[in-house]
Amino acid sequence: MKINGVQYRSVRVDPEDNRTVLIFDQTRLPFSLDVLRLTECGQVAHAITSMQVRGAPLIGAVAAYGLALALRTDPDDVAMERDAAMLAATRPTAINLRWAIDRMLAKLRPLKPEDRVEAAYAEAALICDEDVAQNEAIGRHGLSLIESIAKDKKKTGTINILTHCNAGWIATVDWGTALAPIYMAHDMGYDVHVWVDETRPRNQGAALTAWELGSHGVPHTVIVDNAGGHLMQHGMVDLVIVGTDRVTAQGDVANKIGTYLKALAAKDNNVPFWVALPSTTIDWTVTDGVREIPIEERAASEVTHVAGQMEDGLIGRVRITPRDSAAANPAFDVTPARLVTGLITERGRCAASAAGLHALFPEQAT
Ligand SMILES: CSC[C@H]1O[C@H](OP(=O)(O)O)[C@H](O)[C@@H]1O
């Protein structure tokens, strides 16, 4: 996507040396656009766990480059397996991370150690290119959904879309998933407006989705997480589109905490609730998402404190809870398929069900 007219991907290799991995430090957005130069595997692991880089498809792509960096230090089998396991363990919920590491290992294990670095960078670059193409296709398949809503609306005027967390281009290599259809609809002249859930506790919506949409000129309004149901009750939401970190073979959806509650409100108000995802986010080995998907428990300090720009312009954190109050911080929840209107993938739209997914991915229908 473009920032101030300059085209960027969320992860890229420094053209100066074709080895250093460049990402944006997402903990500094929207106040500062800082590029991080990653030269060691450990730096990549830290960037993922600290959420300097986040978003299911993007952490997979960055971890792939992390393994390439690791091989520059030691390309032998033992080191490669150790570093791959370390990267895969950085965050448990997004299946893209495990998928990317497994794909890299499948490519690298058969090679001689001395051939692995070059091959790793090439495979990581392929993963990135495929993510961009998949997300652009998701955008097109989601665009037709927005177009059908525009036609069906009794009154002309704004199409109001609600989204949760950040599933934009900064959560992927480019385009995004949930936001891709919105960018395309906006660029085609549709009058779209986005209700942006702030998405406590880390405020990916308020800080990242609002920043992305504003940079692209898409009208949007930041709301507290608990406002969505009220807006739906009053007919102010035409469509909900969210991203996801893992979809089961039956269509259950793991996504940022709070998504399940949004889906319940959408069901109760007959608002279409769609989930956008590349097929790298589908976990074909899991059926019951609520029981089987591991939910990342993050630090309580993300709940007890909030980060933002202080009066002096510096980025800081303030405590918002009593010091002796405990805090819990499950980072994701699972929305059962029965609450999901449908899935938007790079191959098209389908019902959130085994049959729907097999219709688009027949090779997975055993
Ligand atoms: C395009 S996937 C985005 C997905 O990832 C986010 O999680 P996090 O910010 O913790 O990496 C969130 O669940 C988004 O929906």
TrEMBL record:
The Swiss-Prot or TrEMBL record describes its family as follows: Belongs to the EIF-2B alpha/beta/delta subunits family. MtnA subfamily.
EC number of the protein: 5.3.1.23
Q: Which SUPFAM superfamilies match?
A: NagB/RpiA/CoA transferase-like (SSF100950)
For this entry, the protein name equals: Methylthioribose-1-phosphate isomerase
Query: Recorded GO terms, molecular function?
Result: S-methyl-5-thioribose-1-phosphate isomerase activity
Organism of this sequence: Acetobacter musti
Q: What are the site positions for Transition state stabilizer? A: C165
Q: Which Pfam family is one of this chain's hits?
A: IF-2B
